[in-house]
Amino acid sequence: MCQRDCQHWDPEAPVIYAVTPTYARPVQKAELTRLSQTLMHVSNLHWIVIEDAVKKSSLVENLLARTNLNHTHLFVQTPVPYRRKGSVNYSITNNCDFFITNIIMISMFFNLFSFFFQPRGVEQRNAALRWLRKNKTMNDKGVVYFADDDNSYSLQVFDEMRYTKEVSVWPVGLVGGLMVEKPILNLTTGKVVGWNSAWRPDRPFPIDMAGFAISLQHILKKSKAYFAYNVSGGFQESHILQQLTVRENLEPKADNCTQVLVWHTRTEGPRLTEENKLIARGIHSDVGLEV
Ligand SMILES: *[C@@H]1O[C@H](CO)[C@@H](O)[C@H](O)[C@H]1NC(C)=O
């Protein structure tokens, strides 16, 4: 692995493999810029970015080239039946075209529908798992974290996860309809005994993607563990964690799960009403500009 010049690198410390699925949309560059500039402060980090696309986009390629991050750029397209409504015929060329298709085809209903039922990022996260299993060995020390591009991360969350033995967990802010979704600990044993989740608390692991990390060695050891389409959105975390661990073995981080170090902020979709009027007249505000 190349350690790029500007990054702090300690050959003794485990590498954090931050796995970020991404897809073309008006806010994509803003989100990836924000996330990449957070990750640039983290030592021993390798960013695996997987585009939901038929080929690498120049937007993501350019962005990765500008960072000083160690990175791997992959792409894999979500199969047709599982694609986002409105992105079926969309190829990554122009965000405005996406927007037109988007407003025509997406209704609130479909947004909600796909949020709750359509699993997202399955193919892309699995591509990262395959890449790790192909390119890393049991001698490589590391930890794997699914870092979506629409969250806000404290740098401290990366310190917390770095020495994960198998699977570590911590609270996530602004998710699951709550201010915070968090593991509940037995204060005597320090073990996870449950969760405070309100949405489908019957899930085997009612936890958000941003609330856990898995050691690289454990990913390699449990080589059959993958995300899957035959489980609903909201159950992907449970599905992968059930293949990797049991509740008793979870390692609570962030001061026994008393600190919130990551937030599911999500970016508000931009209002492009004026842009759409332009597009209707065959004009774009972003001609010759990558936004
Ligand atoms: C977490 O809780 C356990 C059990 O009560 C305790 O032994 C440990 O010191 C605590 N750790 C932190 C960082 O507070």
UniProtKB/TrEMBL annotation:
Q: Which Pfam families match?
A: Glyco_transf_43 (PF03360)
A Gene Ontology CC term for this entry?
A: Golgi membrane
Report which superkingdom the organism of origin falls in.
Eukaryota
- Lineage summary: Eukaryota, Metazoa, Ecdysozoa, Arthropoda, Hexapoda
User: Which residues constitute the catalytic centre?
Assistant: E237 (proton donor/acceptor)
Give glycosylation sites per the record: N256
Q: Which reaction does it catalyse?
A: 3-O-(beta-D-galactosyl-(1->3)-beta-D-galactosyl-(1->4)-beta-D-xylosyl)-L-seryl-[protein] + UDP-alpha-D-glucuronate = 3-O-(beta-D-GlcA-(1->3)-beta-D-Gal-(1->3)-beta-D-Gal-(1->4)-beta-D-Xyl)-L-seryl-[protein] + UDP + H(+)
> Localized where?
Golgi apparatus membrane
Kindly state which keywords UniProt assigns to this record, in alphabetical order. Glycoprotein, Golgi apparatus, Manganese, Membrane, Metal-binding, Signal-anchor, Transferase, Transmembrane, Transmembrane helix
Which named protein is this?
Galactosylgalactosylxylosylprotein 3-beta-glucuronosyltransferase
GO biological process entries: carbohydrate metabolic process; chondroitin sulfate proteoglycan biosynthetic process
Q: Which GO terms describe its molecular function?
A: galactosylgalactosylxylosylprotein 3-beta-glucuronosyltransferase activity; metal ion binding
What topology does it adopt in the membrane?
Answer: Single-pass type II membrane protein
Enzyme Commission number, as recorded: 2.4.1.135
Organism in which the protein naturally occurs: Nesidiocoris tenuis
